[in-house]
């Protein structure tokens, strides 16, 4: 079984989907709340800005200075975002 303690590096390639968020948090359970929050926010940003199904790699590593580095990267920085369906803004009747 891999060591996912807070001092061990963590790396996971996955598709960014809403279902991946709680699964990723479960896999990172040994890390503190701040790391879980950062990873959740970064993965949610991928969903909001690039779209569901975007392949990403999540990395959590320690630094020599006792800090934690959290990264969420896509495989190709030149890839274009996925187009999302436009939504109709709510009616402003009576405004």
Write a structural description.
By secondary structure, this protein is of the alpha+beta class. Helix content is about 25%, strand content about 25%. It has 2 helices and 3 strands; from the N terminus they run βααββ. The protein has helices at about 20-25, 35-50; strands at about 10-15, 55-60, 70-75. A 3-stranded antiparallel β-sheet has the order 1-2-3, covered by helices on one side. A hairpin with a 5-residue loop joins strand 2 (about 55-60) and strand 3. Helix 1 (about 20-25) packs antiparallel against helix 2. The longest helix is centred in the middle third of the chain and has 17 residues, at about 35-50. The radius of gyration is 17 Å and the shape is elongated. Mean pLDDT is about 80; it is low at about 1-5.
Question: How are the SSEs placed, and which strands pair?
Answer:
Elements: E1 10-16, H1 20-27, H2 33-49, E2 54-62, E3 68-73
Antiparallel strand pairs: 1-2, 2-3
Primary descriptors:
single chain; 95 residues; three-stranded antiparallel β-sheet; 2 helices; 3 strands; 26% helix
Brief rundown of the structure:
This protein is an alpha+beta fold and 95 residues long. It contains two helices and three strands.
What strand line-up does the widest sheet have? 1-2-3
* Poorly predicted tracts of residues: 1-5
What's the mean pLDDT score?
82
Query: If helices are DSSP runs of H or I spanning 4 or more residues, what is the number of helices?
Result: 2
């Amino acid at each position: 079984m891999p060591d996912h303690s807070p001092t061990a590096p963590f790396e996971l390639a996955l598709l960014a989907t809403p279902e991946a968020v709680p699964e990723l948090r479960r896999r990172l359970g040994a890390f503190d709340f701040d790391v879980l929050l950062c990873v959740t926010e970064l993965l949610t940003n991928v969903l909001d800005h690039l779209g569901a199904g975007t392949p990403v790699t999540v990395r959590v590593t320690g630094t020599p200075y006792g800090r934690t580095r959290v990264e969420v990267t896509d495989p190709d920085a030149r890839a274009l975002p996925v187009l999302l369906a436009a939504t109709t803004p709510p009616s402003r009747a009576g405004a």
